[in-house]
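I would like you to sit down with the pair of lines that follows and say whether C-alpha cells and residues agree.
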Amino acid sequence: MRRHKIAVSLAVCALILGIRGVGAQSPVVIDSIPAINWQKMSASEDVSGDELFSRLIQEEWLRDDKIDGTPEVYRTAAKLHLAKANELLDAIEEELDETDVSAFRAKLQLFESQLSDHATNDLEQVYAEVRGVKRKIIFSNPLYQNYELLFCKRVPGSYSHLVAQYLGWRARSGGGIFVLEQPGKSLQCRDLTGNRLPAGSVLEPRLSYDAQKVVFSFVDLADGKTYDPVKVHFTDPDEGFYHIYTMDVDGNNLKQITAGSYDDVLPNWLPDGDIVFSSTRRKGYARCFWWGFGKRWNTFTIHRMKPDGSDIKTLSWHDTNEWFPMVANDGTITYARWDYIDRDAVTHQNFWSMRPDGTNPKAVWGNATPNPHCVFQARPIPGTSKYVFTAAAHHSITGGSLALLDPSAGSDGLQSLTRITPNVPFPETEGWGIPEYYESPYPLSEEFYIVSYSPYPLMMEGQTPNRENATGIYAYDIFGNRELIYRDPKINATTPIPLRAQEKPVLLNSALPANSEPYGEMTIENVYEGLGPNVKPGSIKEIRIVQIFPKTTRDLPPVGLAGEENARAILGTVPVEEDGSAFFRVPAQTPILLQVLDEKGQAWQTMRSLTYLQPGERVSCVGCHESKDSSAFASTAMDSVASPVRSLALQKAPAEIEPGDLGGRPFSFVETIQPILDAKCIECHNAERTEGGMNLTGAVEAPGLKTGMTMFVEGTFNVTDAPSDIFTKSYYALCEGQIFYGDNGQDPSRAAKAWVPRFGGRNTIQLTEPGGHYGSLGCRLIKYLDAGHEGVILTETERRHLATWVDLNAVFYGVYDPDEQKKQLNGQRVDMPEIF
C-alpha cells in the first residue's frame, strides 16, 4: 500500500465526519473528493480534533477492507459498500427527506458507472467516496440523530474470566464516565467523573428513565494498588471492592451508596426509582474455582435497594452467579443465570427473568442450550418482546458475537436466535481464536444499534489480559454496516447509551404481603404432564423437596465422587393426589429442587436446576418439567384468588412437608447407607474377604483428590498433591468403578454398567428423560439386590434409603465445612448450615 504524508482537505473531513446535516431544514450536499493518501498514525504524533477523527475512520476502512493499494482490491471493496449503501438507503428511505434521498441516489448511480469493469477511474478515490457517502447515509438515519451519548472508558480486568472480570481486586485502573457531544461527527466529549473519583475502574453505567441520573459501579485503585490472589481475603478491609455510585448527568451530586466487604456490580434502575444490582452479599463461592480467584466471596446474585443505598433486599436465593439485571418491556427483570446443578460447569449462563420483588424466577431461553455459553448484556428491543445480547465465553471477558433473541420462537435452541454479527463465532463454543469481538449492544430498533467493537482478538483465560484500547463505539446495523462513532487510541470506550429520556416499562407492583410467615406455596396441577407415556397415571405418590446448599468453602473439600456437585439435604416429602395434583408449603428464601417419587421412593424425574419462593408467594405450574411454551406458569401472593381449576390437591389445605426419617438435616452416607452395608454386606465384602473386589466397610480411604477441583486423569482419580481421609472404602467401592466426569458422563451405557450411576461434573446432558439411567431406577446395585443377590433381603426402609442416596446424585457429605464433614465421617448428625 502506498504511504504518503496525509493531507485531508476540509471537503474530505466534511464527508467523512458528516458535518453537514441531513433533513428538510438542511438538505444534503455531497462534495467532490480529491484523492486520499492513507497513512497510519504513529504513536508519537500529536493529532487531535477532526484530523484525529478522520484518521481513525480511515484506518477503520483500510483495515476492514484489507486494502493493499491494488486497483482491484479498491474496486471490489467499493462495489461491496456500494451494494450495502443501496440496501441501507432502501431500508431508511421513508425516514428521510425526498431531496436527500434523490441526492444519495444520484451519487450512488454515479459510483455504479465508475466501478464498471471497463472503467479506468482513480479507484482509490472512488472507494473513498463510496465509503464516505455510505457513512453519511448511516448517520442521516434519524435513529442516530439529536442526542448526546453517555459512555465509559475502562481497562478490562487483569484476568479474563466471566466471574473474575467483576471482582474489584482484579480490576485495572483507568477511565471514567463521559458524554460524547456530537456522535458520529466529533470526538469532543465531557468528562463527568474527572477528578471527582480517585484512580480506579468504572463498570457498566446505566441512565435513569428520565435521563437525569446515572448509576454505576466503581472500584478505588488509587496509588497503584494491586492484590495477590493467594493473600486476598473477604476479611480484608473495605478496599479493592466494586461499590455502587450515583450522580447527576452533569457529574454533580456524586454519591457512593454501597460499602462493605462485597462486590456490588451491574446496577440498573427500576421503574419505581429503586436500583437492582448483582452482589456477593450472599457470601458464596463457585464450586470449581481455584486459588487464583482469591478467598473473597465470588458468587453474585440479584439484589435491590432504595436509590440512596438503603433497604438492601436479596431477591435471588440461587446458588451460583447471576449478572446483568435489566428491566424488560413487560416490567420483569431479566438477567443471566449460571445454572450448575448436577450438570456442566461451563455452558449455562443463560437468560432468566423474575418479577421485581424476586418472585417467579424462570428460564426465558437457553437453559438446555449450550451454545452460546453466556447471554450477557441483554437489552430489550424497543416495542418488541425480543432482546439483543452479547454472546460471550465462560473463560474470557464479556465480549464476542451479538445475537437477537426471540423467546417466542422457543425456550431453547438456535432457532430463537438471529446472529447480528455472523462473521464472529460464538467464542469458546465455536472456537477459541476470536480475531475481533463486540460487546455492549444498545438497540435503537431491530435493525439499528450502537455497539462497542474491537478489531483486536478476544483474549481467553490463561492468555495475556485483553487490550487496554481494544474497543471503540460504533453504529452497526443488520445489513453489516459498521461506522466509527468514538474511539480513544489509549483506552477502551464502551457501554454507549443515548442521553435522552426513555419510556418506563410496565410497573409491576408486588402483591406479596408485608409481614408474611417465612413460607410460600406451590401448586402442581398434574405431575404426569411432561413425564411421558411410560409413567402411568397413579404411579407417582410423592414429591421430595431437596434443599441445595450454596458453596460456603472455596474449592475443596469435595462432597462426593460425581465431581463438583452441591451438598444437599432432604427437607421431606409431600403427597401427590390420584389426579396427579399437589399443593404444599415450602420454606421461603430457600434454594430447592423437586423429585417425583413412585411407591418405592424412587425418582422418576429430578430437577437439575433449582427454584425458590419469597415469603407469601404462591407459584403454580401445569406439570413436571412441562414445556413452558404451552403450559401455565404463574406466581402470585398467597392471599390471591386461587385457580378456578379445582384439582384434588386444591380441595384441601396445603400439605406440610413430612420430614420422614431422613429429612431436616444434611444428607450423610455414613449415617444413612453404611448401616445397611454393615448389616447386609460386609460379611462377604470386608478387608479380609473382598468378594468381587469390593470392601464395603466404613474404614476411611485416603487416596486423595487433586487440589482444586475433583479432577480426573485418564479415567481414574489423580492421587497426587491432595488431602487424604476423605471418604470410606465402601463409598469408593460403590462409586469408583465408572467415572462420570466430563465426556464420560454423557454415555448411558456407562451408567448401565456402573454400580451407582451419577450426573457427573462437567456432563453436558441437556435434558433429563423420565426414569433415566442416572438415578435409582437405572441403578445396577439396586437391580442386583432386587434380583436376590446371595439371599440378601433389604427391608423396605433400607431399600428406600439406598434409592434416596442414588437419587441425591450419590453424595457422600451433605456439608462443605471440613469440621462438619469430620463429624459426618464419624457418623454424627450435623445441623443445617446457615444460608445468607
In short: The first strand starts at residue 148 and ends at 155. DSSP finds twelve helices and 37 strands in the chain.
